[in-house]
Design a protein that fits this description.
Elements lengths: L14 H5 L3 H18 L6 H10 L59 H10 L4 E5 L3 E2 L4 E5 L5 E4 L8 E7 L5 E7 L2 E6 L7 E5 L4 E4 L1
Parallel strand pairs: 1-3, 2-4, 3-5, 4-6
Antiparallel strand pairs: 5-8, 6-7, 8-9
Length: 213
């Protein structure tokens, strides 16, 4: 005999709980268990439900005593119910899945902590390098790509006051030798001996010199 009662699931589980990596599996399993218990104890709305229930579950199970069921619904992935108390604690980390509104941001983010000058320097350091073509001596003034078209010897002097992670590409395009002056890998002068060679140099504050990479 099917008993006409309200099925489980009328009260929606909060999305915040379902997204939680530890609590989500618990509440989803609990909802599934509630639906199975509802069917096992005669829940349904018509005779078809009664037939489907008898085909799926063993006959004679008409109890809500958890000790008589095969599995304890609270023994899921080692979840400790004491962890539910943690939901009442204030959010202390910035997790988009845990923040319900922008009102929570001031507690986690203080604009005064930003070093604007440092951020601007980093942005400038990643700008696209300027491209320059030269056949005479040249001094770099930032992140640049230098195309050397000289037929006689020239010198490319690296920026004496470079920013951290400033980059210079130097391409020997023609037959003229190209010397590169500056603090480079422990030396003060490097020569691009072969035509079409193109060393890539990066300055770092930590090393306090240019590095060929």
């Amino acid at each position: 005999m099917v008993i006409k009662v309200n099925p489980p699931g009328l009260v929606k589980i909060p999305e915040k709980l379902l997204r939680d990596p530890e609590l989500g599996p618990f509440f989803r399993f609990q909802r599934e268990w509630e639906e199975k218990m509802w069917l096992r104890t005669g829940g349904g709305s018509d005779s078809i439900s009664d037939i489907e229930t008898s085909e799926i579950f063993e006959p004679g199970i008409q109890t809500t005593d958890l000790d008589e069921l095969d599995q304890d619904p609270f023994d899921v992935q080692g979840i400790d119910l004491d962890e539910l108390d943690e939901l009442e604690e204030p959010i202390q980390t910035f997790d988009p899945d845990e923040v319900d509104s922008v009102e929570a941001l001031p507690e986690m983010f203080d604009p005064e902590d930003l070093d604007i000058e440092s951020i601007l320097e980093q942005i400038q350091s990643i700008e696209e390098p300027e491209s320059v073509s030269t056949s005479v001596d040249f001094t770099t003034t930032g992140s640049q790509t230098i195309i050397c078209t000289n037929t006689t010897a020239i010198t490319i002097a690296l920026n004496a006051t470079p920013a951290d992670f400033e980059e210079v590409h130097i391409k020997r395009q023609n037959i003229g030798p190209v010397d590169v002056s500056g603090a480079i890998d422990g030396d003060t002068l490097k020569t691009i001996n072969k035509r079409y060679d193109a060393p890539h140099l990066i300055f770092t504050v930590d090393a306090n010199e240019w590095s060929i990479i």
